[in-house]
Structures are given as structure tokens and as C-alpha cells.
Amino acid sequence: MNFVKLNNGLEIPQLGFGVCRIPDLSECQQVVEKAIETGYRLIDTAAIYQNESAVGQAMKQSGVAREKLFITSKLWIENFGYQETLRAFDETLAKLQTDYLDLYLLHYPFGDIFGSWRALTELYRQGKIRALGVSNFPNDRLFDLLVNSEVKPAVNQLQTHPFLQRKYERKFLQEKQISLEAWSPFAVGRDNIFSHPVLVTIASHHQKSVAQVILRWHLQHGTIVIPKTVQPKRMQENFSVWDFQLTPEELSAIAQLDQQDQTQTTALAEIDDRIRVQSKFI
């Protein structure tokens, strides 16, 4: 397993396991137990997934020491604000049956972001959260948080895959020493990603699956990635991506698959230019 060192020195497994859209608690517990048995140590959940209690029970039943696991959860927007954040965090800890989180994220950039971040900063300094981060934050909202906060986010979790490669977001995050974590790394199977001829050809060359090629692409870009599956066979397949490397030519071919809307890309570039001018202030 490879690890990524976050900007506060904490190491996070580069390949983890997500549990989005597994609301059935019995199924979720079984799936997470199997993931831990397979070797996953980073487990990503969220309050809005309504399965934190199942993840907590799976952690308890796994037999793996808590300190060997890296547990992430996220604060939902209806609980943003200083007091509500403290209350929601305690609920999350109770459901997960733990006394600390390794990473806690603001799920979306809406509502009282700064009240919540103030609460998270206090919890971080108390040792109840080992690293703070955000999810789905565009560059401008993330920059606003950076300017107005004492503790820098360690992670921004964004939907990222070969058809949405996040060129400008990735560049900004690298400049600010914030790690990119990819959710939905397979594009939810849309646009026939698993049968795309470029990816199929690369997979055939390495005698790997398209899913393994996509995960390898993420890993070679330094991205933290959290694939999700309920199938043990796929779980093992997704974990078996450490024995091959994509060539520069293959990486270049995948780079051509990016479908990020040109209008959005232009807007992001303009925002980045403005941010760069102001970056001397942080």
C-alpha cells in the first residue's frame, strides 16, 4: 500500500474504500468487513450516507486495531454552523464507535462554512480529528476558506475520473499543498467508460481490467482514490493495482479523454489567475 503525506504530516492510504449509496446497514457492515479483510484500511463514509453505524460495527468486528484504520466522515450541510457542527460530530463518533476521526470533511460549500470550520479547528486542536478537509469545493470557495482560516484543509474530495480530470483544480491544489481525493473514480460507469477503446487497449496490454487501469491512472497522478463496490471479486480486483505501471504514452492517451466542459474550464482558468494574484496574502 502506498501512502500520501498530507500537509500536516499525517499519512493517508492512497487507495481506500467508499460506502456511498449503501444505505442498507446489514449489507454495508458485511461489505466493509470484507473490504478490511481484503486489505483496505482507508474507509470513507458520511453522515448523509446514513451508514456510519454500519461502518462502526464493521470496524469493531474486523479485529483490526483502530489505529491501523483510517476513517473519514463528512459533515452534512444541514448541520453547518458552530454549535450544530459540534453536536453532529459527537453523533458521528457515537455511530462509528470511536473517540476520534482521522479525517473529517465539510461535504459541500454551502451554509455557515466558517462557523463549522471554527468548530472543526477546535476539535482538531483537541486531537479528536487528525486532519481537516473539504469535499466538492471549487477553487474560489476553497481559496476563501484558506484566506479566512487558521488551519489549512488537508484534502479536497472531488469527483474525478478520466472523463473529468480536474486540470485546473489539480494545479491549484498542488500549489496550495492540498491533496486531491477522487470520489466516483469510475464515472459511475457512465459514457461506456468500461468499454472505451483507449482504456480497453491499455488494459489488454497489461492483462488488467479497465477498472484497474483507471485506478492506476489515479495513483500515478498522486491522487487518493476511494472506489466503491459491493462485490468481493471487484473489491479484490480494485485492490490489486500495485504490480504494474502505465507508460508515459498510455498516460498521454488517457489525458486526451478529458471531457471537462470548455466553458467551465475557461472560467476556472480565469478564477485561478485572480487567485494567483492574491496568493501572496496566504
The whole-angstrom Rg is 19 Å
Task: Please report which band the strand proportion falls in: under 5%, 5-15%, 15-25%, 25-35%, 35-45% or over 45%.
Answer: 5-15%
Q: Can you write the helix and strand succession as a string? A: EEEHEHEHEHEHEHEHHEHHH
Mean pLDDT: 93
Count up the helices.
Answer: 11
| Terminus-to-terminus distance | 34 Å
Q: Largest sheet, order of strands side by side?
A: 3-4-5-6-7-8-9-10
Q: Total strand count, please?
A: 10
Poorly predicted regions are: 274-282
Overall 3D geometry? Answer: globular
Largest beta-sheet details: 8 strands, parallel
- What is the helical fraction, as a range of percent? 40-55%
Helix/sheet category: alpha/beta
Description:
- The protein is built from 11 helices and 10 strands.
- The protein is an alpha/beta fold.
- The chain has an 8-stranded parallel β-sheet. The protein has a two-stranded antiparallel ribbon with strand order 1-2.
- Strand 3 (17-18), helix 1 and strand 4 (42-44) form a beta-alpha-beta unit.
- Helix 1 (25-38) crosses helix 2 (52-62) and helix 2 (52-62) packs parallel to helix 3 (82-96).
- The longest helix is centred in the C-terminal third of the chain and has 17 residues, at 262-278.
- The two termini are 34 Å apart.
- Mean pLDDT is 93; it is low at 274-282.
